Amino acid sequence: MSEVRELYGASTGNSLRAAIALAEAGMEFTPRGLDLTSGDQRAPEYLALNPSGKVPTFVDHSVSPPLVINQSNAIIQYADEQAPGRLSPKGSGAQRYKVYDRFFYFVTDVIAPSHGAFFLSQVGQQAASVPLSRRALEHLTAAEAFLEDGYMAGESFSMADISAFTFARSVRDQIDWRDLPRMARWLALIEARPAVKLGLQAFASKLS
């Protein structure tokens, strides 16, 4: 692992998406696991990197001052820029914008309402969280129509698949996969990717 790049996080969807993106881009990094239940994210040294006390946080020490990125989607786009062609097509053009369109579909229409539902549930508003959870699931399953060419944005793996994957994996027990044959094949295909496996294991070992 590289000490030059560090990714602070936990086994959350946002952290795992960032880890998968870095792994898919072929970028070595050192995972720094935080125990959220113990409050590691509120330690002064971590708040100096991420004042909101959330995960993930990416630090690249190869530049001066070190580059710090707190948003998982910004980390994904950073990885895309560092490894052109791996997470989106090189250059400009219709296919590149299709990748962006599908990437933000999952970010805004699936992940965002899911996060809202989680917050409401955490503050005791379970009934209010239900419509948001339902909305996220409905938008995910609607993406069956995206998969006619195998991946979420066409014939090649992209950041759109990363933005969809961890959520799809987290709700797999809530889906009738018989109604979603393309998505079932897609989920198995993404899970089998070596870099995805590496990203999923980033915070599975003991905290560092």
Could you please describe the fold and organization of this structure?
- The relative contact order is 0.16.
- Strand 3 and strand 4 form a beta hairpin.
- The mean pLDDT is 94.
- 50% of the residues lie in helices and 8% in strands.
- It is of the alpha+beta class and 208 residues long.
- Helix 1 (13-24) packs antiparallel against helix 6 (159-170).
- It has 2 domains: 5-84 and 196-200, Glutaredoxin; 94-193, Glutathione S-transferase Yfyf (Class Pi), Chain A, domain 2, CATH 1.20.1050.
How many DSSP E strands?
A: 4
Give the distance, in angstroms, between the N- and C-terminal Cα atoms: 13 Å
- Tally of DSSP helical segments: 8
User: How many domains?
Assistant: 2
- Uncertain regions spanning at least 5 consecutive residues: none
Main β-sheet description: 4 strands, mixed
The structural class is: alpha+beta
Secondary-structure element order, N to C: EHEHEEHHHHHH
State the shape.
Answer: globular
CATH class descriptor of the largest domain: Mainly Alpha
Average pLDDT rating: 94
Q: What share of the residues does DSSP label as strand, in percent?
A: 5-15%
* CATH-defined architecture of the largest domain: Up-down Bundle
In the sheet with the most strands, the strands line up as 2-1-3-4
The portion of residues assigned to helices is 40-55%
What is the alpha-carbon Rg in Å? 17 Å
**What's the CATH topology name of the largest domain?**
Glutathione S-transferase Yfyf (Class Pi), Chain A, domain 2
